[in-house]
Amino acid sequence: MGTASFLTRARGLLHIRNQLVRECLAELLSTFILIIITLGSSAQKVTSLETKGNLLTGYLAGALAVMVGIYTAGGISGAHMNPAFSLAMCLMEQFPWWKFPIFVVMQTLASFISAGAVYFLYYDAIWHYSNGTLTVSGPRETASIFATYPADYVSVANGFLDQVIGTGVLLVGVMGIMDTRNKGVPKGLEPVAVALLVLSIECSMGSNCGCPLNPARDIGPRLFTYVAGWGPEVFRWEKGRGEGGWQG
């Protein structure tokens, strides 16, 4: 009885009653899970010289991470995990505009924290693989573990179009899955359908820029690499980055 009473009191103290705070924490947690799995798969692939991961495992990890993120917070915040999706919801009047900047901050913050977690998780592997130098280009670059970079042949205009089309397909697909007037997805399996959508986009549109499809997924980890030692080069586009010029 004593233990049960203590746990009941603890739950009462830890229970968050403010709905906005609950939504923010849910968005933070779901985005953290999405990004830590996505970046972790990239780190495992790069630092092991693709002996413990490859392009397909990276795509699968990213898609399954979306599924887990939605299951984690979909019932509380909607598990947007993506500023582009939050913006689309605002434009369709399904999400209040005043919450948009708050969600974007939570999503970006979670991505930044996730990048830090992956960095410390693979700290020894990153430094061993890079021969003690954190670089953005060259055969032993490690910046692409955290952010996506275009292939050498991709121009800025083509890279921009690539992301507009890829993100557009993602949003249209998600809206179709969510639309109750459409051919319905079995209740509870919506996250699985979204994960399959993400996987299909990765497998068909990933070669140009790595298929980030998510501003927070890119800017948060990119900011982390900037402050963690990779320097301002992480914000510059240049040809000849060497092997691993982009990662999914």
Written account of the structure:
Helix content is 62%, strand content 0%. The chain is mostly helical. The radius of gyration is 19 Å and the shape is globular. The C terminus is likely disordered. The protein has a single domain, classed as Glycerol uptake facilitator protein.
How much strand? under 5%
Number of strands: 0
Quote the average pLDDT: 90
**Main pleated sheet:** none
How many helices does DSSP assign?
Answer: 9
* Unreliable stretches: 240-248
What structural class do you assign from the helix and strand content? mainly alpha
- Could you name the CATH class? Mainly Alpha
Distance between the termini: 51 Å
Briefly note the CATH topology name: Glycerol uptake facilitator protein
Helix content: 55-70%
CA-based shape: globular
Radius of gyration: 19 Å
The tally of domains stands at 1
Give the helices and strands, then pairings:
Layout: H1 2-14, H2 19-47, H3 55-73, H4 83-91, H5 100-121, H6 123-129, H7 156-178, H8 190-205, H9 215-230
Short description:
Homotetramer; each monomer provides an independent glycerol/water pore. Could also exist in other oligomeric states. With 248 residues, this protein is an all-alpha fold.
What descriptors fit this protein?
248 residues; Glycerol uptake facilitator protein; 62% helix; 0% strand; cell membrane; Aquaporin-3; transmembrane helix; MIP_CS
